[in-house]
């Protein structure tokens, strides 16, 4: 069959989660004439990591996540990562604001709601860390509304579920930012896909599996199998995005691009304790993060979260990690062994050698009894009743393994964008805080893979309209940060009244 005989599109996006949905809408807003197709293995979008019960979904903004502010050997606190994540989340809010302004996107209340973000520590060492962290963060305009207290009466007002039943002499402290959020990325993905479906030359197709990726003179030939009928079709596309969560690594390997060689994946499953009892839920209106146990990985940071899903509030506590060789919750146990290649076996063995503590931690988590899980919850919520909580199985995360010249291989807990040199294909690998900073990641992808268009007056003008201020500007310009953030909060119906006295801001 001649190349011209194949169906042609401009963009194929694999996976109907938050990443692909965001990128598809961005590209369609920048170029209304673009022809694109989203293909998804499941029978609807947001089934895997974008599903609200498959992730913590906090709306990561660096406000309460203590692992984003590491302590140096001299006791100082590095806030750079928290600032970066915060401003990236502000960029996400700008994009959602732009969509709300279009008038056809729907209500922001379906996917984002104001929920205070708190950090909570126990013991003298924890208090010393939190106090130093607060002193460092309050100096930056992104965290100017943060409050700190060691007063237990104040903490009982901030988190009434967590204080009763504690020893009177237990040293505890907390910080709070009222302007935190809870984001339902499943609902947001659904709205993005619905918005996209109303545009011309946009298709979202379910029960479709990508079985082949072959380079052509003008891009890629994508082989797509219908999992219900078994029919196979082939599409020529100028650009392909592999946004299939844990499934992106096998697809990247299928592409054969040199930039993807050496990458491996370490799958980690998760579990949560979930409470839907209205009498319990109404006593906790917050997302409260604490410190991971000594020697535990960042993924183990315990937190008690208010979640708003389909208008109903629930509580999630965890995470409790686990291990499965699947790369997706609905994947295959052969995913991990089939991902091993000559180019990545070295880095994967090096990571196995250097991360024995992680392996031991995961084994311990898998072996936990329900009573042990409840013991961890009771360190947050001393009077927790086992009958109010049930186990919720979360989604799969595939942590990145990549080559390292010194160690042979390293395990990363963030996200990584891998693109071909010619920009014709790109994949997103990794996990947290991916969803909350999706828009910044997809803007980086557009800049790398569509450089000529980004430099054009048309795209540059549209990007400026969508994004009045990008990350680095928001980091440096306090007045502009406050202006842009307040505008987003107003449109997204997030405006809250701070309890911090004006003199302390």
CATH T-level fold name: FAD/NAD(P)-binding domain
Q: Which structural class fits the helix and strand makeup?
A: alpha+beta
CATH class: Alpha Beta
Oligomer class = single chain
CATH superfamily membership: FAD/NAD(P)-binding domain
Percentage of β-strand residues: 15-25%
Q: Any idea what the radius of gyration is? A: 23 Å
Proportion of residues in helical segments:
25-40%
Number of helices: 16
* Strands, total number: 20
How does CATH name the architecture?
3-Layer(bba) Sandwich
Query: In terms of per-residue confidence, which ranges show pLDDT below 50 for 5 or more consecutive residues?
Result: 498-505
Features:
single chain; 505 residues; alpha+beta; FAD/NAD(P)-binding domain; 10-stranded mixed β-sheet; 8-stranded mixed β-sheet; 16 helices; 20 strands; disordered C terminus; flavoprotein
Give an account of the 3D structure.
- The C terminus is likely disordered.
- With 505 residues, the chain is α+β, with helices and mostly antiparallel strands.
- Strands 4, 5, 6, 12, 13, 14, 15, 16, 17 and 18 form a 10-stranded mixed β-sheet that branches.
- Strand 17 and strand 18 form a beta hairpin.
- The chain has one domain: 3-Layer(bba) Sandwich (FAD/NAD(P)-binding domain), CATH 3.50.50.60.
- It is built from 16 helices and 20 strands.
- The longest helix is centred in the N-terminal third of the chain and has 22 residues.
Fold blueprint:
Elements: E1 7-14, H1 18-30, E2 36-39, H2 80-101, E3 112-114, E4 117-122, H3 123-137, E5 147-149, H4 152-158, E6 172-177, E7 181-183, H5 185-197, E8 202-205, E9 208-216, E10 219-226, E11 232-242, H6 248-255, E12 264-275, H7 278-281, E13 287-289, E14 303-309, E15 312-322, H8 335-338, H9 345-354, H10 356-366, H11 370-380, E16 390-393, E17 397-404, E18 408-412, E19 415-419, E20 425-430, H12 438-449, H13 451-455, H14 457-466, H15 471-476, H16 478-491
Parallel strand pairs: 1-2, 1-11, 2-8, 4-13, 11-20
Antiparallel strand pairs: 3-7, 4-6, 5-6, 9-10, 10-11, 12-15, 12-16, 12-17, 13-14, 14-15, 17-18, 19-20
Protein name: Probable malate:quinone oxidoreductase
Organism: Pseudomonas cavernicola
Pfam family, one: Mqo
